[in-house]
Amino acid sequence: MRILIAAAGSRGDVAPYTGLGAALRRAGHDVALAATDAYAPLVRAAGLEFRSLPGDTRARGDVRDRRELMRTAARFITELGRGFADAVDHGTDLLLLSATTAPLGWHLTEATGTASLGAYLQPTAPTGDFPPVVTGSRSLGRLANRATGRFALRMADRVFEQAVTELRRRLQLPPLSPSAMRRRQEQANWPVLHGFSTALVPRPADWRPGLEVVGTWWPHHDAAGRLPADLEDFLRAGPRPVLIGFGSMAAGEGERLSEIAVRALRRAGLRGILQTGSAGLAAGGDDVLTIGDVPHALLFPRLAAVVHHAGAGTSAAALRAGVPAVTVPVTADQPFWAKRLAALGAATDPIPFGSLTAERLADALGRAVKQQAHTRAAARAAQHMATEDGAARTLKAIEQLTKG
Fold it and tell me: Per DSSP, which regions of 9-91 are E strands?
């Protein structure tokens, strides 16, 4: 079967699909992954065909400002929509669509008759169990949670309006609004698999049929891969260090964040590793090492704790390693995952990015490392996650869908 996975966004929105795609390829399928050009090396390293999608995923302005975030998202989606159809050839048998690409992919399936399946990294369907993940708000009760969940979907529909209008015109389809298409898919119980662990988010009982939580899709990495020599030397030179990194967040704030990180580590009496990321973190010394991208699966189990922005993938990776976390959420779904980790006991209470200081970070690190309750909670979650196989369940769902 020829499968096309379509994903768009930051590195964390694309990397999990490299592992899923590699697993599907090992099962005998011909797999391509469509993403923006920045992730072509990531996709090809997993042995997958790369298809180019247009769009610039780099943050513009203050990503903590929700209005600016919506404007940036609308510009990106409109650009994405203009080249989306080019990524799908007539030989594609199945489209796997992320939460970002599904509202475009649905129109392609209408035009071509190609089967499709949702493959989401976040829960987007309204539920009484929690408020919409993109709002970062506290639970307001079951009725209000569902109402705000429906409102969040309507706001997302607005982001896709221009892209959908242009795409349907190109596909020679009659006009249809994003909200009307979404309701059509919901009424048909369009299947969506969610690639996160039930340790973090159990499947809500009030979700409609067709929505399932299958377990995490882990980014591909070379099974024979090794950590860089200087990193190995640092790990062996003393007690387990703490990793501090903000992934694709905080661009341009590297100097300030590096200073905060080093002061916090020394105040807490801990060795540290700074991961450069988009922020450009950097520092040196006998007790601090700066690194670039390395596989979480190789590094995280050897750490005392992880300080991170609470992106879905990094949150899952720290939990899988049984390592406590200190979360510093910046925007979007990050406050949601940060609260989930804290509720499990596997992380300290989140420190909002705008409130981060060396003193607050040092205090949280001291509790994360020295209070064994956080480590025990992370270890319990890791044991739960070890029983899940998101890729295998996805393969089974594909087989059932295509048989039907």
Answer: 30-36, 49-53
Give the span between the Cα atoms of 77 and 240, in whole angstroms. 42
Residues 140 and 241 grouped into a single domain: no
List strand residue ranges (DSSP E) for 309-404, in order. 325-327
The model's pLDDT over 163-209, given as tens digits with 9 standing for 90+, comes to: 999 999 999 999 999 999 999 999 999 999 999 999 999 999 999 99
290-331 pLDDT per residue, tens:
999 999 999 999 999 999 999 999 999 999 999 999 999 998
- 298/223 Cα distance (integer angstroms): 10
368 and 306 in a single domain? The answer is yes
Q: Tell me phi and psi for residue 175, to 5 degrees.
A: -60, 140
261 and 197 both lie in a single domain: no
Domain of 100?
2-216+388-403
d(CA 335, CA 131): 11
Instruction: Quote the pTM value.
Output: 0.94
- 309 and 118 in contact (C-beta within 8 Å)? no
Alpha carbon dihedral 113, 119, 124, 127, in 10-degree steps, equals 100
